[in-house]
């Protein structure tokens, strides 16, 4: 955790101190043995984690007001090992935890295993300097605690899937025929760099949401309903959007190819070539892509 | 659905293997819940659009409201689903087209008569004759005149009035003037018919719905041919024309189409993390808080049709039989001991049989809709 931005409440303003006091009352942290000082320290940590140091007071005020302080206090009290907080947490979230795990794993035994694993992480089995290290201590109240639990379980599920993919046994590989897979053949057709650059140019012009929709639909094979639910719009809106984006992207690529000296017919033919026949040096391009700036919310300097 | 060029899919996939720092669970969950402000939301969306793993996590983190509420799943029947509505709208549009064509073709032919137009306005008839109609249409017009059950000479005052109105409308509209191919009587008789045949083809489902809703009041403005029908209905009845029966059924058909196109949205229910009950009447787009009881925090919900059961802290159990309009507190008691533990699970597969799960791991069951309870 960086030290930048963590300042005592007194150094902020009287207005912020009043706000923190109100938030403490709202959080009902006292019921779980959380002192006002400990609560303020938690909020200061959250502010320091997400907001840049030079954010105006109004931004801090809005940010604090948007926090789920009741659930934040509960989570941190659980992480501190408060019995009543744990009792409350289990009453409220235990059944949901298993339901969510079942929904994510799509299979009851795997779901139960996932939920048990997360439960152990939440309780904190490992010790650091004699203290329990609970995953709940990383909850910051940006979204609901239930949503955070859902995301934590989803992350764990994706990590497990990746680990399992890495540790496929030799028998399984043999069954899949991977051991006897033929060597990759040499490229049959050389890629026209103009097609690549025109495609990249057209993709770069898309907004983040458009890329998200296209990648979800064409790469991840998500259904229209799933995409619509994640973006909180109607399914028909996504249906129209996918159709429109695919058409406009094709048109932009064709236009880009025309600018690069291709005739209309050549451009159409270039787009019809199956990329499985193309040999794109993806490795080198991916290394290039990965040099793009890493995700950091602070860099935008927004209020968060 | 249009396909993406394969090279675009390939390049998109290449961009999807972005590395770097991923947003933490707090940000992703807040993103999924739409709780992030503009900049943060845009940054997470930008990352998620390029990161396959984070996109996977976003989709796994997105709650499936129907799946998490088994009672609601039963309540939201499939016939309200979007594909059904879409096909329903298409069928309704076809019905409107067929109805319009059925209504106006016989009506137009009844008025087809060269003598009648000559009586009405000969100069304009001559002008229309100069527009060189197709020979086939001339033959059709003549045949229609021959088979018309109505005598060529207009004797019915109401019919004559309609004819006159139709003619004036035709003369005032250059578009209709161009499209009307037949000389003479066809000009006077067919304008509304032509329009009626052309108009429904362009009808979208929404237009059809609006038409069906506002048919009596707005017909004269939106669909002139229908206005003519409505005005001519009494006259047609007295004349005993073959179209009268069909015409009288048109408003009813339109109303039934409107009913089919405007189903009432089945309410969806959910409980917030604060324990308040919320209802959505627009398929989960917006949610409104439903007041049930003062301080009770609810943890479990069962919904089946208009029957809603909610249970929560300190044995609070409420039942609504009218989709949440009115609530009745139910106090489960067995052997003289009331339920005081927190209710964490409610199941009511039907109106009578129900099961409650409490924080003390007890199970309370009823088989008479909550009148009597057994603890297990």
Percent helix range of chain A: 55-70%
Count of strand segments of chain A = 2
Spell the H/E element sequence of chain B: HHHHHHHHHHHHHHHHHEEEEEEEEEEEEE
Describe the main β-sheet of chain A briefly. 2 strands, antiparallel
The proportion of residues forming helix of chain B, as a percent range, comes to: 40-55%
Strands in their spatial order, largest beta sheet of chain B:
4-5-6-7
* Arithmetic mean of pLDDT of chain A: 77
Count of helix runs of chain B: 17
Which residue ranges of chain A are poorly predicted, with pLDDT under 50 across at least 5 consecutive positions?
1-10, 184-189, 276-304
Uncertain segments of chain B:
66-77, 107-208, 210-263
Order of helices and strands of chain A: HHHHHHHEEHHHHHHHH
Work out the strand percent of chain A. under 5%
User: What percentage of amino acids of chain B are in beta strands?
Assistant: 5-15%
Mean pLDDT of chain B: 63
If you compute it from the alpha carbons, what radius of gyration of chain B comes out, rounded to the nearest whole angstrom?
A: 33 Å
Characterization of this structure:
- Chain A is mostly helical and 304 residues long.
- Chain A folds into 2 domains: 9-159, no CATH class; 194-292, Orthogonal Bundle (Arc Repressor Mutant, subunit A), CATH 1.10.10.10.
- Chain A has 15 helices and 2 strands.
- Chain A has a two-stranded antiparallel sheet with strand order 1-2.
- The two termini of chain A are 17 Å apart.
- The model of chain A is unreliable at 1-10, 184-189 and 276-304 (pLDDT under 50).
- With 376 residues, chain B is of the alpha+beta class.
- Chain B has 3 domains: 6-62, no CATH class; 83-261, no CATH class; 268-375, Thrombin, subunit H, CATH 2.40.10.
- Helices cover 52% and strands 13% of the residues of chain B.
- The radius of gyration of chain B is 33 Å and the shape is flat.
- Chains A and B meet through α6, α8, α10, α11 and α12 of A and α1, α2, α3 and α4 of B.
């Amino acid at each position: 955790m960086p030290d930048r931005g963590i300042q005592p409440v007194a150094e902020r303003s009287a207005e912020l101190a009043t706000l923190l006091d109100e938030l403490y009352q709202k959080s009902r942290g006292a019921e779980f043995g959380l002192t006002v000082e400990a609560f303020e320290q938690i909020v200061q940590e959250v502010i320091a984690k997400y907001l840049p140091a030079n954010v105006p007071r109004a931004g801090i005020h809005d940010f604090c007001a948007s926090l789920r302080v009741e659930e934040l206090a509960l989570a941190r009290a659980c992480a501190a090992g408060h019995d009543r907080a744990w009792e409350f947490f289990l009453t409220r979230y235990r059944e949901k935890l298993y339901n969510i795990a079942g929904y994510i794993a799509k299979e009851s035994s795997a779901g139960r295993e996932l939920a048990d694993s997360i439960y152990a992480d939440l309780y904190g089995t490992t010790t650091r300097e004699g203290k329990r290290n609970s995953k709940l201590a990383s909850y910051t109240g940006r979204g609901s605690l239930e949503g955070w639990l859902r995301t934590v379980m989803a992350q764990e599920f994706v990590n497990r899937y990746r680990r399992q993919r890495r540790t496929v046994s030799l028998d399984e590989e043999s069954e899949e025929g991977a051991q006897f897979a033929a060597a990759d053949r040499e490229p049959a057709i050389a890629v026209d760099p103009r097609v690549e650059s025109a495609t990249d140019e057209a993709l770069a012009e898309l907004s983040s949401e458009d890329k998200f929709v296209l990648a979800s639909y064409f790469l991840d094979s998500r259904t229209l309903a799933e995409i619509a639910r994640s973006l909180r719009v109607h399914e028909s809106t996504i249906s129209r959007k996918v159709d429109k984006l695919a058409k406009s992207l094709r048109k932009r690529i064709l236009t880009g190819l025309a600018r690069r000296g291709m005739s209309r017919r050549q451009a159409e033919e270039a787009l019809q070539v199956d990329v499985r026949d193309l040999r794109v040096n993806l490795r080198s391009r991916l290394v290039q892509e990965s040099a793009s700036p890493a995700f950091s919310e602070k860099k935008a300097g927004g209020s968060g | 659905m249009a396909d993406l060029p394969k090279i675009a899919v390939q390049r998109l996939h290449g961009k999807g293997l972005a590395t770097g720092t991923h947003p933490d669970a707090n940000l992703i969950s807040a993103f999924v819940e739409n709780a992030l402000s503009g900049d943060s939301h845009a940054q997470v969306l930008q990352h998620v659009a390029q990161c396959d793993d984070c996109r996977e996590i976003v989709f796994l983190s997105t709650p499936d409201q129907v799946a998490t509420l088994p009672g609601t799943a039963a309540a939201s029947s499939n016939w309200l689903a979007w594909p059904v509505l879409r096909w329903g709208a298409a069928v309704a549009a076809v019905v409107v087209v067929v109805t319009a064509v059925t209504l106006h073709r016989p009506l137009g032919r009844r008025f087809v008569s060269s003598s009648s137009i000559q009586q009405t306005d000969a100069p304009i008839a001559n002008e229309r004759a100069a527009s060189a109609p197709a020979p086939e249409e001339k033959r059709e017009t003549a045949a229609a005149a021959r088979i018309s059950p109505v005598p060529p000479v207009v004797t019915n005052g109401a019919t004559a009035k309609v004819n006159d109105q139709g003619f004036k409308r035709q003369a005032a509209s250059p578009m209709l003037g161009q499209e009307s191919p037949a000389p003479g009587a066809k000009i006077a008789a067919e304008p509304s018919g032509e329009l009626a045949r052309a108009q429904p083809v362009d009808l979208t489902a929404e237009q059809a719905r609006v038409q069906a809703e506002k048919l009596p009041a707005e017909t004269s403005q939106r669909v002139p041919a229908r206005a003519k029908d409505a005005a001519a209905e009494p006259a047609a009845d007295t004349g005993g024309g073959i179209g009268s029966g069909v015409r009288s059924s048109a408003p009813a058909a339109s109303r039934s189409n409107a009913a089919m196109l405007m189903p009432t949205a089945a309410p969806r229910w959910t409980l917030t993390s604060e324990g308040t009950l919320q209802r959505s009447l627009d398929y989960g787009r917006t949610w409104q808080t439903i007041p049930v009881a003062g301080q009770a925090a609810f943890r479990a919900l069962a919904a089946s049709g208009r029957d809603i059961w909610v249970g929560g802290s300190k044995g609070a159990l409420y039942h609504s039989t009218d989709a949440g309009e009115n609530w009745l507190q139910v106090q489960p008691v067995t052997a003289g001991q009331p339920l005081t533990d927190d209710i964490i699970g409610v199941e009511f597969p039907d109106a009578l049989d129900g099961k409650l799960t409490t924080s003390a791991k007890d199970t309370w069951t009823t088989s008479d809709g909550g009148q009597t309870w057994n603890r297990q």
